[in-house]
Amino acid sequence: MNRLIATPISRRGVLGAGLATAGVLAMPSILRAQDKSLKVGVYGGYFKKSFDEHVFPDFTKATGIAVESVAEPTGEAWLVQLEQAAKAGQAPADLSMMSQTSTLKGQSTELWTPLDTSRFKHYGDLLPRFINKYPDGRVAGIGAVAWWITLVSNTDVYKEAPTSWAAFWDKANEDKLGLLALASNSFLLEVTAKTFMGGTNALDTEEGLNKAFEKLAEVKPNVRLWYRDEAQFEQALKSGEIPMGQYYHDVTGLAIADGFHVRTTFPKEGGIQDSGNWVLSRASTKVDEAHVFIDYMSQPSMQGVMSRKVGTTPTLKKEVLDLTPAEFASVSSEIEPIIPRYDLYTSKADWINQKWTELIVG
Amino acid sequence: MRREVPKSFADYTPLLFPGLMLVVFFVVPFSTMIAVSFFKRNPAGFYTPDFVVDNYARFLTTFFAGVLGFSLMLAVLVAVCCVCIAFPFTYLLTKRSRRVQTLWLVGLLSVLSLSEVIIGFAWSTLFSQTAGITNLFVALGLMDKPVALLPTFGAVLAGMVYQALPYTILVLYPALVRLDPTLLEAARTLGASPVKAFFNVVTPALRNTIVATLIMVFVFALGSYLLPQILGRPRHWTLSVLITDQAIYQSNMPFGAAMAVFLVLISLALVGLMLLVGRKENAL
């Protein structure tokens, strides 16, 4: 398998080098290569910077497809923009990184071009949770990046690492927590269900959801900050002002590397694993290029590069990866993750949002 | 100066440009927002053009009434604080030399260049336990140990007053500079102390300016959504924060639009009421 991919890459590489030296004679080919381009939307900031640096140049070198990266806002703003643009037949980006909930919402208007999985050599190696399907089985999105939200703490304030999400409910932690402000990005209902109700299936019924909300209400006195922007919490965590909370495993890792006194813990109930998909706007005409890109990104070697350089979690089975045990441990954990119940944020979106807002604001 | 009544169409042409801008940048977006507020929301996707009142119905609860009430109260309080601080300050500023005035105004203008984000984070550091001003008080022996001054209502208020104060001063300044000095001289000649002259002569003479400034700061403060998040607890979140949640995070444009329309209508009503009261007082 690896050889199959390696061959075209090296041939392209040789070709590229030859063209560069051939100069004028090669002009038509260069133009052809530049004809092929792809606009790729990635989350602005850290992700875009890392992709521009470590991913896109090599992709262009390997395939001859030029990439124009577009910074997308988080939240659902980008989904709304793509939808409005698609109605007008425009695609501000061909491929975009899209959160699971947004991918599901886009399905409702057939916003995503179904993907031909036979064109992805490593389709069979993808973990099933990273394949997003339409109800009729067509594939709407393929896992792009995955990341963890873990239990983080300041090592000066907490000498011992907490081991369970139950630490959030500990009365000793009054006014000490920083948590994400929305049901659909904090996934605290899932955490509550996994920690106290035997698993996220407990959220299947409205009764179960109500119970989870009740249990979650007990956390409120312990929360000092409900944050929407990462920077708001990160600074306070580093200084010890708000010494515990939920945060992104990758960014906390960077803070540790910079010498800040913080730690990230996979609780025994599991870290929260969230992820984004590659989705192709139905208004895009670059269907071929998009498939080449997703195929390229889903190779074990690229997943390895992403884990090492960007700090994201691989979307492929552990067996096919080229990561050392230490490298794997720095971006993932053997503990079964808490997978968010994305379906709830489309089927019961407004009900959950209203109850949640009343819970934390009221 | 005598005002000529415009006679021909040509006399109205200077109004065309501002009128056009008003249509493009206010009437069109606001109408779109009103239209969207009646659209039908699909929780699993987007919204479809329709005429439903569900979005307004959802808003009419004690919960949202509470949030709306808090937002209005906060905006009024910010406006009052700003005018109470800025009015005497600007008055005293106009008594200084030209050079001193210029320096102060340049300083105030530079504060305007700070974004809400920077102001929010700066105040959150100032109010923090680990690096905040209470550490200074401890060093001076005024306090036993440093404490966190946020998240509190006071922190939100301080941040918002800080943000709105330069605007307040810049709006008050021209009126105070132009104030006829003979008014004060007369008051002083008749035996009023400077303080008494300020309250009994300067303040009433500029009542309309003060009312206009209050309204401007009120409207300005009503739109604030970042400072309450950074400096306050969820119960200090304004309606603008919840509107943002709906629009950005829930892609529930119809409900977000309905809340925004409601907020605009309520604030227009309040402004109208204030102007009405002001006019009656003037008539007396």
UniProtKB/TrEMBL annotation, chain A:
Transmembrane segments: none annotated. The keyword Signal applies. GO terms for cellular component: outer membrane-bounded periplasmic space. InterPro entries: SBP, TAT_signal. Keywords: Periplasm, Signal. It comes from the Bacteria. This is ABC transporter substrate-binding protein. One of its GO terms (biological process) is thiamine transport. GO terms for molecular function: thiamine binding; thiamine pyrophosphate binding. It holds the Pfam family SBP_bac_8.
Automatic annotation (TrEMBL), chain B:
Residues 68-276 form the ABC transmembrane type-1 domain. It is found in: Cell membrane. The chain crosses the membrane at residues 12-39, 59-91, 103-127, 147-173, 205-227, 255-277. InterPro entries: MetI-like (IPR000515), MetI-like_sf (IPR035906). One of its GO terms (cellular component) is plasma membrane. One of its GO terms (biological process) is transmembrane transport. PROSITE patterns: ABC_TM1 (PS50928). Belongs to the binding-protein-dependent transport system permease family. CysTW subfamily. This is ABC transporter permease. It comes from Mesorhizobium kowhaii. It is a multi-pass membrane protein. It comes from the Bacteria. Keywords: Cell membrane, Membrane, Transmembrane, Transmembrane helix, Transport. PANTHER family: INNER MEMBRANE ABC TRANSPORTER PERMEASE PROTEIN YDCU-RELATED, INNER MEMBRANE ABC TRANSPORTER PERMEASE PROTEIN YDCU-RELATED-RELATED. Its main location: membrane.
